[in-house]
Specification:
The protein is an alpha/beta fold and 529 residues long. It has 4 domains: 270 residues, Alpha/Beta hydrolase fold, catalytic domain (Rossmann fold); 52 residues, no CATH class; 84 residues, no CATH class; 99 residues, Phage tail protein beta-alpha-beta fold (3-Layer(bab) Sandwich). The chain contains 21 helices and 15 strands. A hairpin with a 2-residue loop joins strand 13 and strand 14. Helix 4 crosses helix 9, helix 5 crosses helix 6 and helix 14 runs antiparallel to helix 16. The N terminus and C terminus are likely disordered.
């Protein structure tokens, strides 16, 4: 069962009993002596799917720009500690991503790894100044290299990272849960994946540990928004806030606690293998993985209580491997179920969406009460996002009680906006020319616009729907649009999403207004780049 704990302390060390309860030996003498190597090189390119976290699809050919960016910097290298000969044992593994080009994780993980017999790899030359494609590929290349050298247990393979390294570790783990059992994010607050089917997949496998100093902004975001989001979506979640600490790596005792907690979820992860899509040895290619996902979805469709889950996985097959026969079959099944007279899973999905929308609204409302200095972002954007979320909930409310509760929250947020210091609300918005939007989901036109508006609010802009555009949006309320824009510019969103669906955007100052496009609306069910 997924759960969330928030603990605040200076240090914690009594983890032996917890680990022994999971059947994992602590402090045992290793059969093989561990040796530290300052620098190892990846021997050959991996067959593992490193492209998906970047493109949000798994194409037959890597996009040229991603391929070129990922190779800037030469060979992929890493520091390592483990035995020379791994034998037949299935080894646990920790891969650490640093915010600097030099690896910084080993001093904090050494005691845990040596005592528990855990292989350790620290990525080299992949700090915050390195392009994302290179950093993501480095993580997966190192995993692939170690899978060639040792027998690695995917249920006990964990990613970890500090600050910007925590961001990369979280992005890779959330995108590729078939390769990992969990992630430890130090000094970075980790949220869930953007797509509903991606959230379903990741929540089945990943344990997510967030470790922050109580005095850093990441602690505020984790406590008020991201940990509740993860819990609501079914992730096994742990938040460790360390008293008196700012933005820095905690001592080894905090790492030992986080690792012990990750290991406690081992039995649950092994049970999740029933979905048939855990790549145990890295041998699955695109066709095999897509077929495994498809077969798991079909099995879920056979049981009334898991039809919604199966349909969600079919969406994942169609989105990730759009050109394969498995995707064509998945799409056909989706259309078949869409035509059914009775569709009880629609209400199930509506309730699930409403629940996470509620968590989002409540979380942003709590964040809006903090001063700008505690958030490390423009407080005005947080207030605008919170107002937008609560206004949407007010529209969706089914009872007078829910409408009144939403109205009260809106009134309080409006009061905070009025009383907030001027400098909190009038900070310069982020230039849209520098922004890349990640819009990857199967949505109606209204849902896509709602998401777009929320992102714009975070950036300091207001999305207004002109009265003349509302009929176009209403006409598309039943049609599903397959958005696959993992890194779209502002003009890309206008051209490839809005204009293809009968709308256009016009920006003036901080306002982005939606209008009907001059051209006749085109009935499009896919937006794929």
């Amino acid at each position: 069962m997924a759960g969330r704990t928030i603990r605040s302390r200076l240090l914690w060390a009594a983890c032996s009993l917890l680990a022994l309860c999971c059947g994992i030996a602590v402090g045992t003498v290793q059969a093989q002596e561990f040796e530290y190597a300052r620098k190892l090189s990846v021997q050959e390119p991996t067959a593992l799917d490193w492209v998906y976290p970047l493109a949000m699809k798994s194409p037959a050919t890597t996009p040229k720009q991603i391929a070129e960016e990922s190779l800037r910097g030469g060979d992929f290298t890493y520091e390592f500690c483990g035995p020379r000969d791994g034998g037949d044992r299935a080894w646990p593994l920790v891969i650490f991503v640093s915010p600097e080009n030099r690896p910084v994780g080993w001093p904090f993980w050494e005691a845990t790894c040596r005592d528990r017999g855990v292989l350790f790899a620290g990525i080299r030359d992949a700090g915050n100044g390195v392009v994302k494609a290179r950093r993501v590929r480095a993580v997966v290349e190192v995993l692939g290299d170690l899978r060639q050298r040792y027998r690695i247990d995917p249920d006990r393979t964990y990613l970890a990272g500090f600050s910007g390294g925590g961001y990369i570790a979280s992005e890779v783990a959330m995108a590729l849960p078939e390769y990992f059992g969990g992630v430890v994010s130090y000094g970075h607050s980790t949220g869930p994946p953007p797509s509903p089917w991606g959230r379903q997949r990741a929540s089945e496998r990943l344990s997510v540990a967030i470790v922050c100093g109580e005095r850093e902004s990441a602690a505020v975001w984790a406590k008020e928004l991201h940990a509740p989001q993860l819990q609501c979506l079914g992730f096994r979640t742990d938040l460790q806030l360390i008293d008196g600490m700012g933005h820095t790596m905690p001592g080894p005792a905090a790492t030992e606690e986080a690792f012990a907690w990750l290991e406690q979820g081992l039995a649950e992860r092994r049970g999740a293998r029933r979905n048939g899509a855990v790549d145990l040895d890295g041998a699955m290619g695109r066709e095999e993985m897509a077929a495994a996902w498809l077969n798991a979805a079909k099995a879920w469709l056979e049981q009334p209580e898991t039809i919604g889950k199966g349909l969600m996985q079919l969406q994942g097959v169609d989105s990730r491997w759009h050109d394969l026969p498995a995707a064509a079959e998945a799409k056909k099944l989706l259309e078949e179920y869409e035509r059914r007279a009775e569709r009880p899973w629609i209400e199930e999905q509506r309730r699930a969406k409403l629940a996470i929308d509620q968590i989002d609204a409540e979380g942003y409302a709590r964040l809006a009460a903090y001063p700008a200095s505690a958030l490390a972002v423009d407080r005005g954007s947080v207030l605008r996002f919170a107002l937008s979320a609560w206004r949407q909930l007010e529209k969706q409310a089914k009872t007078a009680e829910d409408r009144a509760a939403a109205a009260a929250q809106i009134a309080e947020l409006e009061r905070l906006t009025t009383e907030a210091p001027k400098q909190d609300l009038e900070s310069k918005p982020m230039p849209l020319a520098k922004v890349r939007f990640r819009m990857v989901a199967d949505v109606t036109l209204a849902e896509g616009i709602d998401y777009y508006g929320k992102v714009l609010a975070q950036l300091g802009y207001r999305l207004e729907v002109d009265e003349s555009a509302k009929s176009t949006i209403a006409a598309g309320r039943e049609r599903i649009i397959k958005l696959n824009l993992p890194a779209a510019s502002f003009s890309d969103v206008d051209r490839q999403f809005l204009r293809r669906n009968g709308l256009k955007s016009v920006r003036k100052g901080r306002e982005v207004r939606l209008l009907p496009s001059e051209a006749k609306a085109v009935k499009v069910v896919e937006v794929v780049e």
